[in-house]
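Q: Could you fold this chain for me?
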Amino acid sequence: MAFELPNDFRCPISLEIMSDPVIIQSGHTFDRVSIQKWIDSGNRTCPISKLPLSESPSLIPNHALRSLISNFAHVSPEQEDHSHSQSHPSISTLVSRSSSRESRLESLTRLVRLTKRDSSVRRKVTESGAVRAVLDCVDSVDRALQEKSLSLLLNLSLEDDNKVGLVADGVVRRIVAVLRVGSPDCKAVAATLLTSLAVVEVNKATIGSYPDAISALVSFLRHGNDRERKESATALYALCSFPDNRKRVVDCGSVGILVEAADSGMERAVEVLGLLVKCRGGREEMSRVSGFVEVLVNVLRNGSLKGIQYSLFILNCLCCCSREIVEEVKREGVVEICFGLEDNESEKVRRNATNLVHTLLGNPMEA
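A: Sure. Below is the predicted structure, expressed as structure tokens.
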């Protein structure tokens, strides 16, 4: 080739252009042959971040990067502008450095509408290499450009292959920055995007270990409006399904904030607490929050089936560790409430109610 390929196309291990790029759970991309040799040699850490890998690490194809390398390798600099002109016109406008602010905003608006319902357009955007241009718009101080680009990234994340690729492309750093200083609307979209990305297991670890990602969500939960707080709690719930993230969320001072949110009627906060109670630090923090038992009992009396299910589970976990909490729960009339739930339509509610009764009456069962 008469021109240089970008360094991003080179495997960090072999330093050669990747022919089969794959993403590991740290979020970094390597050529399949090189990372497989690394793993087969007994290594169980990421060569770049040094984060631990699972015993049998998954290698997820990075289709977007592979397509980008293929297109770049077969298109000369003179042909590049022509190839862009053959793609979707809105994509061409978005990636063109000569496009005005107004034309970029118009292209983003059109692509947001199209990618919301058309997976083929979502694939076309990622395979064209336009994600970089979209990320640049997220970095913009222009709030309109920022909000539309976040909405487009949210639509692109509907494709599972894109979820990992977006994290590898550096979207988490942009999300954290928006959560810190963005407009209320941008913050809400950013939190929703984080939730979408965290659906994929490999991303939960990457996002959770990213500096300030969890603390930004907790701050958003504390200071946001109702919509923003709900989006933040939903993102925390998605991240906390990965055990290592629970301690990180607790260490950010989230428990008291979540209890306040639960007391105000946000049942998603109860669901997050239902995950945090599985770690020792979470249980210890909950036991220190004055009035927490009353909040959960109120959910038992007035909440939805899911809220009741999680409240029963949390109370059982706390009662298994504290005789003082057992006595407080009894005084609140929880035994009688549990007896009334033993015929509930939800199997999980029935099981959790039975387990809590056994714990309260001195014959604890496994939570």
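A (continued): The longest strand covers residues 21-23.
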